[in-house]
Amino acid sequence: MLLLQLLINGIQVGALYGLTAVGFSLIFGSTKIFHFAHGSAFAIAAYVFYYLYSVTAAHWLVAALAAAVAAVLFGILLDRLVYAPIQRHEGSFFTVFVASFGVGIVVQNVLGMVFGRSFVAVSTPLSRSVEIFSGVFVSPLAGIAILCVALFFGGLQLFLMRTHIGMALRALSENTELVRVFGLRPRQLSTYAFALGSLLVVPAAILTAAGSGINPAIGHHVMLISLAATIVGGVGSLRGAACAGLLLGLAENLALWVFEPQWSEAVTFIVLFLFILFRPSGFFGRAVTS
Amino acid sequence: MVFFKHSFLAALLGVALSFGTAAQAQEVRIGAVFPMSGPNASYGDIFGSGANLAAEHVNADKMLSGKLSIQYEDSQALPQQGVIGMNKLVNVEKVPYVLSAFTGVSKAISTVAQRTKTVAVNGGGVGPDMAELGPYFWNVIPLANFEVRAMIPYLVKERGLKRVVLVYVDDPLGQAIRKELESALPATGGQLVEALSVPNTAQQFSGIAARVRDAKPDAVYIASYGSQQLQIIKQFRDNGVTQQLASYSAFSVPEINAFPEAKGALYTTQNVDWTSKDPVTKRFVDDYKAKHNKLPSAYIANYYNAVRLFALLAKDLQKKGKPITGENLLAQRIETKTFDLVGGKTSFEANGTVIAPIQVNEVDGKGGKAVTVAHAK
C-alpha cells in the first residue's frame, strides 16, 4: 500500500514539475535565454492567486485569470525591459543569466515585503485527501493536476503545430538567422515565448499554493526542478521536459520506499547526474555531433 | 604662514577628535546576527521586535550614559552568512555584545566570539550543545534537551500517547532532539517507532506523510523551523495524518498559533507568566501589547531579556568606571549572579545558560493557550 501511495503522490508532484519545466524549456529552447527568473513568474502567479482568492475572497476563476495576467506580464516585461537591452548590446549568455538571477532575488524580496516572508497557503477542501481504499489517500488536487497537465500540454502542442506563431517559435529554436530570412522578427517571437512559458507555470503555481503552500523563496526550488527536467528531458524538447518532470516527481517519492526522506531530493540530482553521464542529450534531445 | 597653517590643522584635528569622543559617549552599540531574508526571515522580525523594545526601554530609563543602539546583520539563518555578519560587527563596528539566533549560526559565530572575547547571546537556537560553546557564549533560552524532557512525560503519561514518530531536519539541533527522544521515550514507557530526517530545503511532504501513516504512531514530533514546519503541518493534515502533533519552542510563532491545520498541536517553551505583576514583565507585556496589539511570545521575551541583560551589566560597568568590553561583561555577569528580567529573577548556570522552567502549550488556531506546565531543570 505504501508503494501505491508513493506512486500516486509521485504522479501528482511530477505533473506539477512537468508543467513548470515545460514553460522553462519552451523559453530556453526558443530564445536560448537562461531564464532563471522563471521561478519568479511561478511565485508571482502563486501569490496573486493567494491574495485574491484567500485574502480578498474573489472568485477562484477571477483569481486564476489575474494570476495568469500577472505571470504573463512579468515574462513579457522582463523580456522587453531586461533581456532585450542586454542582447541589443550583445551581452553574453552569462550577462543575461546574472541579470535574470538578480531579478529573481529582487522579486523574492519584493514578495517578502508585500506579502510577508513566512509561509502562506490557499485553504481549500480540494487539498484534503480522502481514503479511497485502505491506507491509500488521494486529494482532488491530484486529479486536477493531471487534468491540467493534459489540457495545457495538449493545448501547447496544438498551438505549436497548428498556428503560425507556434510554427515560428519552433523555427526560432532551430535557426534564428533563417527565421529572419523569412521576414519574421526573432525579438517579437521571443516575447511570445516568454508569454507562453510564463503562462504555463500558472496552473502549477495555483495548485502548489493550495497543495503544499508557498513562501517568497519558492522560486529557487521551482527553478532547480525546471533546470533538471530540461536537461533530463533534452534541451529544447517540450515532450522531454514534461516526461522528465514526471520522472523526477516519481523518483523523489518512490525513493521514500527505500531511503530516508533525507535522500529524496538527492535522488533528483542522481537522476540528473546519470543522464548527463550516460545520455547527455536527455530523453528526446538530439545527439550533439561535432 | 606655515605656523598659521599648522595651527589651523591642529585646531581642526582637535575639533574632530572632540566630536568623535562626544559621538562615542552618545552611543553604546551592540550587534545582532538575525535572519532578515530567506525562508526564516519572519524569525528575524520576531526577535528584533523584542530587542528593539528593550533598547527603547533602556534609553527611556537612561540606564546607560549614552544611547543604546543595535546594529543588525542578516544571517539568512545560514552559518556562513552569520560568520560574515559577526566578523563585520566585531572587526568593523567593534561591538562587545552580539545577539545570535539559530543553532547552526550560533555555533558558527561562537568561535569568533571566543577568539575576539566578544559576548554572543542566543535567545532563539535550542541545540543542547550550545551550552558548551565557551565562556563568551551565553543562552537566555532553555535548550531543547530540557524541552524534550518536559514534553515526553506529558505525552506518554498525561495523554497516553506512547508510539511517537519523529520528523526532523538533519542538522545538529534535529540530531540532538532525536538523541533525546531515543533516551527519554523508553524511560517513560514510550517508543520512538520511526525517525525520519528531512533536508532543510525540502518542500514536499506528502510522501513523508505516507511513511508516517504507515508507522501507525500515536503522536508525531516535528523538529523543524521556519516556513518548513508550516508546510509539514499542512501537508501532513492534508494527507491523512490525524495524530497528535508535538514540537519544541520553534512552534511559538504567530503563524503556527493562527494556523488552522495546527490546531491542537502541543509545543514547549520556557514558562513565562504574562499576567505577572513583576514590574519588568508587566512593562514588557503592556508595552508590547500596546505596540503590536497581541501578546508577546517566549522568543520576543528572550531577546528583550538579552538586551536588558546587556544594559544591566553595562550600567554596573559604567558605574565602576570600567570600559564595556566582552571580558568585563563576562566578569560582571559572573559577579552579579541574578538579574531582574522578564519572567522574574533569573540566574545562569556556570556554562552561561539560563535556568528556566518549561511549559507545554497547545495551539488553539487563534493565538495559542497554555494547557499545562511541567518544570524541568
Structure, described:
- The complex is a heterodimer of chains A (290) and B (377).
- Chain A has 290 residues and is mainly alpha-helical.
- Chain A is 75% helix and 2% strand.
- Chain A has a single domain, classed as ABC transporter involved in vitamin B12 uptake, BtuC.
- In chain A, strands 1-2 form a two-stranded antiparallel sheet.
- In chain A, helix 1 crosses helix 9, helix 5 packs across helix 6 and helix 9 crosses helix 10.
- Chain A starts with a helix and ends in a 12-residue tail after the last helix.
- The model of chain A has no long low-confidence stretch (mean pLDDT 88).
- With 377 residues, chain B is an alpha/beta fold.
- Chain B is built from 12 helices and 14 strands.
- In chain B, the strands form 3 sheets. In chain B, strands 7-6-8-9-10-13-14 form a 7-stranded mixed beta sheet, with helices on both faces.
- In chain B, helix 9 links the parallel strand 9 and strand 10.
- About 3% of the residues of chain B have low confidence.
- At the A-B interface, helix 1, helix 4 and helix 10 of A face helix 2, strand 7, helix 7 and helix 8 of B.
Largest interface comes to:
A-B, 40 and 38 residues
Q: Roughly how much helix do the residues of chain B carry, as a percent range?
A: 40-55%
CATH architecture of chain A: Orthogonal Bundle
**Would you count the extended β strands of chain A for me?**
2
Given the C-alpha coordinates, what overall shape of chain A results? globular
> Can you tell me the residue ranges of chain A where pLDDT is under 50 for at least 5 consecutive residues?
none
Structural class of the secondary elements of chain A? mainly alpha
Distance between the termini of chain A: 49 Å
Output the number of helix runs of chain B.
Answer: 12
The coarse silhouette of chain B is globular
The biggest beta sheet of chain B reads: 7 strands, mixed
What is the CA-CA span between the terminal residues of chain B?
Answer: 75 Å
Query: From N to C, what is the helix and strand string of chain B?
Result: HEHEHEHEEHEHEHEHEHEHHHEEEE
Q: Structurally, how many domains make up the residues of chain A?
A: 1
Overall pLDDT score of chain A: 88
Oligomeric state of this protein: heterodimer
Structural class of chain B, please?
A: alpha/beta
Proportion of residues in extended strands of chain B? 15-25%
Taking Cα atoms only, what radius of gyration of chain A do you get, to the nearest Å?
19 Å
For this structure, the CATH topology of chain A is ABC transporter involved in vitamin B12 uptake, BtuC
